[in-house]
Amino acid sequence: MFEYINMGVVLLSGIIFLLFTISYMIEVNEKDVDGEVKKGSKLTIFTIIVSLIAPFAFSAMTKSDIYENIQLFKDNKVLKCSTTFNNYLVSSKSGWNISDDSFLKDSLLIRADKCDLHE
């Protein structure tokens, strides 16, 4: 599952985690009007937890997309797959094959989560 983790999501989650952790630490160390030490807000704690879980949730969604697109391919559906520079119509009829979690034709390899059903 770790191979499907998007590093952009990890970076963003890390930044959010750090900001809200610092915010929480400042908030806990402040005193309210009565001189009592404040407790951290539930929203801050929730945000910290979500930022830690988010990369794994996105990874699971990516893996689910891959399995779904491979199944569509096996059902002889045509998929529109995108790369940085081009879009390709992928189907078993046009000579594409499955290679692990990707579609392969000649030397072109496209990961299956980069595809949608072609209408």
Written account of the structure:
This protein has 119 residues and is an alpha+beta fold. It has 2 helices and 6 strands; from the N terminus they run H-H-E-E-E-E-E-E. The protein has helices at residues 7-29, 42-74, and strands spanning 79-82, 87-90, 97-99, 102-105, 108-111, 115-117. A 3-stranded antiparallel sheet has the order 2-1-6, covered by helices on one side. Strands 3-4-5 form a 3-stranded antiparallel sheet, with no helix packed on it. A hairpin with a 2-residue loop joins strand 4 and strand 5. Helix 1 (7-29) runs antiparallel to helix 2 (42-74). The radius of gyration is 22 Å and the shape is elongated. It starts with 6 loop residues before the first helix and ends with a strand. The model has no long low-confidence stretch (mean pLDDT 80).
Secondary structure elements and pairings:
Elements: H1 7-29, H2 42-74, E1 79-82, E2 87-90, E3 97-99, E4 102-105, E5 108-111, E6 115-117
Antiparallel strand pairs: 1-2, 1-6, 3-4, 4-5
Helix pairs in contact: 1-2
Keywords:
119 residues, alpha+beta, three-stranded antiparallel sheet, 2 helices, elongated
Short structural description:
By secondary structure, the protein is an alpha+beta fold.
Count of extended strands: 6
Amount of beta strand: 15-25%
Reported for the largest beta sheet, the result is: 3 strands, antiparallel
Q: Rg, please?
A: 22 Å
Helix content: 40-55%
Number of helices: 2
- Globular, elongated, flat, extended or rod-shaped: what is the shape? elongated
**Order of secondary-structure elements:** HHEEEEEE
Q: What spatial order of strands do you see in the largest sheet? A: 2-1-6
The unreliable regions are none
What does the average pLDDT come to? 80
Distance between the termini: 30 Å
Look at the helices and sheets and give the structural class: alpha+beta
